[in-house]
Design goal:
elongated; five-stranded antiparallel beta sheet; 19% strand; six-stranded antiparallel beta sheet
Length: 807
């Protein structure tokens, strides 16, 4: 066989297009020469010389490997060699016979060569077809391999295995995932007995019944049951089988799938437990009941576990009992209130470090040094504790799973721990938040009661009230037992004089989607009047449409009374300040009054003399009488101004000429200024308009400022000048300046001089400037002070020209 393979390789080489024609014809010569040499060798050793046989072999080899023409050449050469070298004396008939033999053999080889070539062509064609078919199948083969790999991976990921079941023989075929689900080795031959060995004892009857029914009726099946694994793990599976059509042999087979639904069953149980716990939370159960229920849920999922939940106190120092229905009471009492730390059992350490602590054997773990005897006395050998976190990431408790034998958590255990700690965190936070909300509502209600402020919400559509707090009901005088009052009932409680203002304010806020702040009065059925401040804020939906108003209503009756009392006290104080000031100016005012009275007396005497002449001079007497009237009028005006300053009454706002007020005060204080050799200079603008103000209060402000300037210049050794200036300032305001050349303002106390009871005078009350600022600000203006160059002080105040009077 090796020789033939080598010969084929030589032939293939000779048939290559690159091979020389001479080599093929040379093959004829070489093959015949080889045959001749072999025959001569045989002849020399006196062996039968088989030249004809050697020659025929050479011809055949030449035909096979050299082709037809070289083969014919080999036949001719063989005939010539035989005639020349062997039996040259044989008869012509024998020679012809040999030639015929060579010819026939050559013809036969020609036919064989032709047939060979045809076969080679057919073989090549078939080989090419097979090659093409093989190439075309490669993608399908690869796709099939990929699909098989995908199917195997999909089964592994979905925990779904496939199987085949031949009823006639009982043979069962499993996929790799099915072997994994049943936890059998691949070398195991699956069968019904192997299936029943893994079926949970409580479900064996169901599985047998399903197998028998499928065998007898040939119908498909879909059942769920449990498997009991050798390691004690319980699995839930769903098995679906479908019969396939009978083949020619009449055999019926089932194909189907088995799915490990343990995770689904566990999730369903946890979901049901979670729903049950949430119902407990919503039902107002205590936190202890909720946590006990959570522990029992864990123990249902893992029968050997003893679950425990401890709560961390608000100080983050101690753990207190939350729930542990299956742990011994003595153990729970012993660990209740433990102080957390880095080596305080599993729970104390987990709470301290903020991470899970797994203790597989309490007997040997250093975390349990302090509590080891306690745990072992109650047959507790393993404890896995996991911190429970709030939504803010703060530790609020621990969840622990105890076992009575050494044990480490499996991935399934970790899944349960993760779900339970999350659920515990939700339940604890919800309950704590609920308690906090209840306390907050109680605090809010108490705060509303103390501050007389009620909260409310009303819908814009229909003006329907959605929420009214208890304090709101108390303010409006409604009884909550009778339900929420409608809009008309609420409006009836508003004072008739304020209803139009209230409606207009609400309408503007609704139209502009804006806040509102309004003060109005309530008129209660018993005749009681309350002052109310209501503040509202619009609530918009996702489309920026106005939906509701939320806000508060405050009973400000007491505040209004206090403000009225304060205004009255301020008015009384201002009046006392004016009286004290006028008392200080009594001598100067007496001098101002005495001057026109003395002039009037002198003029009266003169008038009498003119009239007592023998020839009375009536014209002179008349002129003297006119002077008497003027002096008397001047005295009366001074007295009137003094009386006005002494007048005690409610402030009255009217249009006032500020320049006129300034001139009046200069007249009153002219004698006081002259007493201390103080010159008074005025620069009063002519184009300033009148302002809305209380004349007496403006007089008081100017009198305080001018007297302060006079007092500041009493003891100076330089020029004493009091300057009063009025002008129109920017932003439609009137500016009045009172300056002096006195001692100036105290250093770094420019603002303190306006504080009540602050004074730089030995006998001052410290109320003049404070009252003056209060008066100016009540008129919507501003009062401030500054230095006067090169010496002295300047006081400025502004008044709005066109504003409503400020209350």
């Amino acid at each position: 066989m090796g020789y033939l393979r080598r010969a084929d390789r030589i032939a293939n080489w000779l048939l290559q297009p690159a091979a020389s024609i001479a080599l093929r014809y040379g093959l004829a010569l070489v093959s015949i020469a080889a045959a001749l040499g072999l025959a001569q060798t045989f002849l020399r050793f006196h062996l039968p010389q088989p030249f004809a046989a050697f020659a025929l072999s050479a011809i055949a080899i030449t035909f096979w490997y050299g082709g037809t023409v070289p083969g014919i050449l080999a036949a001719v050469l063989a005939s010539l060699a035989r005639s020349y070298f062997f039996d040259p004396d044989i008869s012509s008939v024998s020679r012809i016979l040999y030639d015929v033999v060579f010819l026939v053999f050559a013809l036969m080889m020609v036919w064989i060569t032709r047939v060979r070539k045809e076969l080679e062509v057919k073989v090549a064609k078939r080989t090419m077809e097979l090659t093409q078919a093989t190439e075309s199948l490669k993608p399908l083969t690869k796709q099939l391999e990929r699909e098989e790999a995908y199917l195997a991976e999909a089964q592994r990921l979905s925990h779904t295995g496939s199987f085949g079941w031949r009823l006639s023989t009982g043979e069962i075929f499993w996929s790799d995932e099915t072997f994994r689900i049943f936890q059998y080795d691949r070398a195991t031959k699956p069968g019904v007995e192997q299936v029943l060995q893994r079926v949970h004892p409580e479900d064996a009857a169901l599985v047998r019944q399903s197998i028998e029914r499928a065998s007898q009726d040939g119908r498909g099946f879909d059942i769920e049951h449990r498997l009991s694994m050798p390691d004690g793990v319980i699995k839930h599976v769903r098995v679906v089988g479908h019969p396939i059509a009978k083949d020619e042999s009449g055999e019926l087979e089932f194909i189907g799938a088995i799915t490990d639904i343990t995770d689904r069953k566990r999730a369903e149980a946890l979901l049901a437990g979670e729903k049950r716990l949430l119902e407990m939370v919503a039902g107002g159960y205590s936190l202890a009941q909720i946590l006990d229920g959570l522990c029992r849920l864990v123990e249902e999922q893992a029968p050997d576990v003893l679950a425990s939940i401890l709560l961390l106190d608000s100080n983050g120092k101690q753990l207190w009992h939350g729930g542990a229905p299956s742990l011994p009471k003595a153990y729970n009492d012993a660990v209740n209130g433990i102080v957390i730390g880095p080596s305080v059992g599993s729970c104390g350490t987990a709470a301290c470090l903020g991470k899970q602590v797994i203790v597989s054997d309490i007997a040997n773990d250093p975390f349990w040094t302090e509590f080891r005897e306690l745990a072992l006395a109650h047959s507790l050998r393993a404890c896995w504790s996991t911190p429970i976190f709030s939504a803010e990431g703060k530790v609020i408790g621990t969840f622990a799973m105890y076992y009575r034998e050494p044990r480490s958590p499996s991935p399934r255990d970790q899944d349960i721990i993760g779900q339970i700690t999350h659920l515990a965190g939700v339940a604890i936070q919800h309950k704590l938040a609920e308690d906090a909300l209840r306390r907050s509502e109680s605090y809010l209600a108490e705060a509303q009661r103390l501050t007389h402020t009620g909260s409310w919400v009303w819908r814009v559509a229909g003006m329907q009230a959605l929420h009214l707090s208890d304090e709101w009901y108390r303010i409006y005088g409604f009884d909550p037992k009778h339900g929420m009052p409608d809009r008309e009932q609420r409006l009836e409680r508003i004072h008739p004089e304020d209803r139009a203002k209230y409606r207009a304010t609400i309408d503007r806020a609704v139209a502009a989607n804006s806040d509102y702040d309004i003060e109005f009065r309530l008129l209660l059925p018993g005749g009681t009047v309350k002052y109310i401040q209501s503040v509202g804020h619009p609530v918009l939906d996702a489309s920026r449409n106005l939906v509701e108003f939320v806000g508060s209503t405050s009973d400000i009756t007491e505040r209004k009374r206090a403000e009225e009392a304060l205004r009255q006290a301020q008015a009384d104080l201002a009046h006392m300040n004016r009286v004290n000031t006028m008392s200080e100016l009594a001598a100067s005012l007496a001098h101002e009054i005495r001057q026109p009275i003395a002039a009037a007396v002198t003029d009266a005497n003169t008038c009498l003399r003119w009239l007592m002449r023998e020839n009375p001079d009536v014209e002179e007497a008349r002129q003297t009488a006119v002077r008497i009237v003027k002096d008397a009028t001047r005295a009366a005006e001074i007295i009137s101004r003094i009386r006005l300053l002494f007048k005690k009454g409610t402030p009255e706002r009217e249009l006032v000429d500020v320049n006129e007020v300034i001139r009046d005060m200069i007249v009153l204080l002219r004698s006081e200024a002259a007493r201390y050799s103080i010159s008074v200079r005025t620069e009063l603008a002519r184009d300033i308009p009148q302002v809305t103000a209380d004349r007496v209060q403006l007089q008081q402000v100017l009198m305080n400022l001018m007297i302060n300037s006079i007092d500041a210049m009493k003891d100076v050794d330089w020029t004493r000048e009091l300057a009063i200036k009025s002008q129109r300032a920017e932003t439609d305001q009137l500016l009045v300046l009172v300056s002096d050349t006195g001692m100036g303002l105290p250093l770094q106390q420019t603002e303190q001089i306006f504080n009540a009871f602050f004074t730089t005078k030995p006998n001052g009350t410290g109320m003049g400037l404070s009252i003056s600022r209060s008066i100016v600000e009540s008129h919507g203006g501003r009062l401030w002070a500054g230095d006067n160059s090169p010496c002295g002080a300047s006081f400025y105040f502004t008044l709005p020209i066109e504003v409503e009077a400020h209350e």
